[in-house]
Structures are given as C-alpha cells and as structure tokens.
Amino acid sequence: MRGFKLKKLTGFPAECKMCGHCCVQTKVILSPFDIFAIAVHLKTSAARLFTEKILTYSINTTTYWMEPVINNKNDKEICPFLMRQQDKYLCRLYNNRPFVCRISPLAYSCENNAFFRSAIAEKRCYPYQPLTVISVSRYLKKNNSKKAVKKNYKYRLLLKKIIDKGYTLKKIVNKPAAKKNFFRIQQLLYETCPADPLTEKKYPFKKIKKYINSFPAVTQ
Ligand code: SF4
Ligand code: SF4
C-alpha cells in the first residue's frame, strides 16, 4: 500500500486512555465512507446528517474545496459524539468512527499520501500515556484502520481529480454552469448515500466515481 513513508513510531503514545482530549477543538474532516458509516450507525440518511446540522462543511483554504466535517460548533467545541462514562470519555461512534479519529494521534497528509506525526495531537495524549515504539503498519492494524486507509486513499485520489478539473470555490466564481456542477458533485459525494441506512450496506464508490468523472472540466 502506498503512503507508508513513515515506518517507525518511537516514543509514541500508542494506547488510548480515553481522556477525550482529542475530541475537543478538533476539526474532524470526513470522507464519504465516514459519512456513510456514521449514517448507518445512527440509522439515518446522509442527507439528514446535514439538514440536522450534525455534519457541516468547512472551506479548505489550500484547495478551496468544501470539506465535510463533524459540526462541533457548540460553546466548548466538543464533538457531539463524545460521551462521559465515569472517569472515561467514550466515542458514541467507536466501531464506526471516522478515519482521522481512528489513526489519531497519527495524522495523514493527503497531498503526499503519507502518515506523519502531529506534535499537537501527541501532546494531548502525553500526560496519560506510556510512550512506546511501534511500526506504523502495526499501529494501523491495532486500530483496525487498514481498510480505512485504503478507502481514504481512493477517495482522496478522486478528490484530487475533481479539484484538478477546476471544481474549487475560487474557479467557479461567475460561472453558473460550473457552480451548479460543483454543488451537484458535493451532493453526490457526501449527501446521497445512504438514502436508506437499513437497506444500503456499502458506499457505492465506483458508481459515484464514474458519474462524477463524466462532469466536464471547468473552462477558463
Ligand atoms: S487524547 Fe490520546 S489518550 Fe486521550 S482520547 Fe485522544 S487518543 Fe486517547
Ligand atoms: S467522532 Fe468520536 S473519536 Fe472522533 S472526535 Fe468525535 S467523539 Fe472523538
């Protein structure tokens, strides 16, 4: 699998102590696979996650794409899925938690398709953790993240293609047709599946990708 440029994590906080620190003031960027899993977990549709403001969008200031995120716009910017149980903080989505939560405090760079260490994320864990040495591959396996890595990679490749075609907030200004396509692509990717969480079992990535690839490039 591509993206494993970082091989070994030395002095790494590899055991989660359920302190909940990483679920506060954190932007959880989602893939369509994450959205699908959250909707199925909550027995709702992807569209409702947005209309009920459980999820929202955040502008990526590098790519000018609108990234779907968990809406933590409350007083303390706490993830709405964080819950307290005695002295532990648990994730309501645990088995279906998003990719970025699954690999935390490790982080992933989409641009380079590689894993990297985030000092800020690790600092949140340090007071609670025995530091250890672990390979990236083992860490991902331990967190049941290997499939999520593959899915995330497929999605990020598609997203790069969409952005390279000119579908960014900057390039669609004053172009009504491109603007319409931009929001249609957003909707197709993030808000369409599942429509029925009880019958749909898998995010239909191939089908959606084929459809999105048929959209024309934004003209200059
Ligand atoms: S900050 Fe670290 S130890 Fe605390 S919940 Fe997050 S991953 Fe676990
Ligand atoms: S989804 Fe779960 S793990 Fe991720 S930030 Fe929210 S509570 Fe934390």
Protein described:
The protein is of the alpha+beta class and 220 residues long. The protein has one domain. The chain contains eight helices and eight strands, in the order βααββββαββαβαααα. It has helices spanning 32-42, 46-51, 99-103, 119-125, 136-142, 146-164, 176-191, 205-213, and strands at residues 8-13, 55-59, 66-70, 82-85, 88-91, 106-109, 114-117, 131-135. Helix 6 (146-164) runs parallel beside helix 8. The radius of gyration is 18 Å and the shape is globular. Bound molecules: iron/sulfur cluster (2 copies). One iron/sulfur cluster binds at residues 23, 26, 28, 70, 79, 81-82, 91, 93, 97-98, 101.
Shape verdict: globular
Query: What portion of residues belong to β-strands?
Result: 15-25%
Rg on CA atoms, Å: 18 Å
Distance between the termini: 36 Å
Number of strands: 8
Structural category: alpha+beta
Sheet with the most strands, sense and barrel status: 2 strands, antiparallel
What labels would you give this structure?
220 residues, alpha+beta, two-stranded antiparallel ribbon, two-stranded antiparallel sheet, 17% strand, binds iron/sulfur cluster
Task: Write the SSE topology.
Elements: E1 8-13, H1 32-42, H2 46-51, E2 55-59, E3 66-70, E4 82-85, E5 88-91, H3 99-103, E6 106-109, E7 114-117, H4 119-125, E8 131-135, H5 136-142, H6 146-164, H7 176-191, H8 205-213
Antiparallel strand pairs: 1-8, 2-3, 4-5, 6-7
Can you summarize this structure?
36% of the residues lie in helices and 17% in strands. With 220 residues, the protein is an alpha+beta fold.
